[in-house]
Amino acid sequence: MHDIAASAPQSGKIRHMLFTRYFTAYCVRPLRALGFTTLIIGGLVTLALAFPWLGQRQRGSIIQSWSGLMLRSVGIRLHVTGTPPSAAALMVANHVSWADPFLLIACYPVHFVAKAEIRRWPVFGWLAAMAGTIFIQRERQRDLSNVAQAFVSHLTDGSAVGMFPESTTSDGTQLLPFKSALFQVAVSAGADCYPVALSYDHRAAIWIDDMGFLSSIWRVMAQPRITAHVHFCPAIPYQGQHRRDLAVASEAAIAIALSLPAPRIPPETPDDLPGATQ
Description:
Elements: H1 2-49, H2 56-73, E1 76-81, E2 89-93, H3 100-107, E3 111-115, H4 124-130, E4 134-136, H5 141-156, E5 161-163, H6 184-189, E6 192-200, H7 213-221, E7 226-232, H8 243-258
Parallel strand pairs: 1-7, 2-5, 2-6, 3-4, 3-5
Antiparallel strand pairs: 6-7
């Protein structure tokens, strides 16, 4: 009798969990897909018709609001701790998901650097380019120098720039060694460095290896809710710092915030961003 009474609430929880899962997958997800598509179309129209007439600050405000709406449309909720920058800054974060840039932009307008292949994605590549994303082919030294110059220009104008120094995504259970080359832009432009620790409470948000972009979004939409934790660590002043020092300190701050071990950053090579070393 005791076992039957104890198992009844457990069975109720399981039924509720299954109902929520199927309701989200077959009822909520199509609505989310509709909302997401509407936002994409709205974003394209805004970029084509309104952006040519708007100033940098207005563009940043629209992109920030759009990013927040886009996250909500796929079922991701933000939980922010710490203090975002209020002026020109280099924001560096660990990389787990395609949603990471939108998390940071929803907190503070920021220009990002992204892999060159993203520029070739249908619709999304054009959206990213119009939003001010800087694209890079990391194997090309000249691209690194061009990105560094673009970053310094944005920082000098008072804007924030962001990057993911791991260069690729991880599954969130570890940090990959940070690449230090682009940290030079903070030293060159006289901007502080803001490490940001990103994590999600559901593995559906993880985007690694050969996962498709759209299939990953579809998988995220199938979850009742995913909470993304964005933790702004204390700023690291650029004064008196070498770029590798900034990389090591940023990596350590994020590792501590995520309770992960900090990997060892490899020594720099002579080919590391010669154009930004002055």
